[in-house]
Amino acid sequence: MNSELYQRVADNVGRPAIQLRGTARETLTFLGGAPASSTEFSWPEKEGRPLGFIGQLDLAELDLREAAPWLPSTGRLLFFYDMDEAPWGFDPKDWGGWAVIYDAGAGQVQSIPFPDDLKEENRLLGTKYLTGKNYISIPSLERVTLEEAGISEEEEEDYYELSSNVFENHPRHQIGGFPEPVQSDSMEEECQLASAGVYCGDSSGYSSARAEELRQEPNDWRLLLQVDTEDDLDLMWGDSGTIYYWIRERDARAGDFSKVWLVLQCC
User: Could you tell me how many helices (H) and strands (E) the chain has, helices first?
Assistant: First the structure.
C-alpha cells in the first residue's frame, strides 16, 4: 500500500473507525453462535417469524472513544436480520426485517437459546470471535473530490486500492467511520428517506417533494456496524455483499436502538 498517499488522505478527510478482526481469544464480541446477554429479552420477529442472530458487540471490550463516542461505553449490542427475506432497506416496508437490542445490564452474561421455530438454516452455528483495531477510514470518491482528498488525477487509480489494502485481506467488518460501499455511497440519504416512508428503489422517490423536505432536516446517520461476507461462517449477503446497520447519532446517545435502519449492498 502507498502509505504516504494513505496518510495524506487520512489527514485531509479521514474519519476514525474500528476494524473487527478474528481472534483466537474468546470474547463477547463475535459473529455467529447464540447471543450472550445479561438480561432476558423478547427474540425479535417479523410477521411471526424469528429473525436470525448475526452477532454482537461488547461495548466495554472495544475502545470506542474515537471511532464511535456516540455509543454507550458499556453493555452489549445484539444484531438480528431476516435471513429468509433478506431485505435491502430501500423500501419502507422492509422495516422490521432487522433489529438491534441493547443489553445494558452489568451482570454476568449467559447464552440465550434459539427460539424453537427459528429455522436451522438461519442459525449461524459457528462462532467467530472478534477484536477491535482502531484505524482511520477514508471516504470513497463519491463523497469527496480529488482536491478535498489532496490527491492528483495521476493518483486517482491508486486511491481506489487504499481502502481495500488497509483491511489486509480480512473481511471488512467495521464500526463507525466511512462505509466500504459495494454499490452507491449514499447510504445516509437512503436511511433518511426510507426510514421516513420514501421508497428508494428507483429515482421517483429521490425526486419526490417529500424527499426534498427530508433533505432539509438534520442528517446525523452514523455507521453502527458493517458486516461483510464472512467465509469462516459460510455467510454471504447476496453475491459477495455487505450489510450496514445505521443509527442516528441522537438516538445512539440516548441509548435508543429501536430505530436502526439497514442497507444491503451486493455485486
Answer: 7, 14
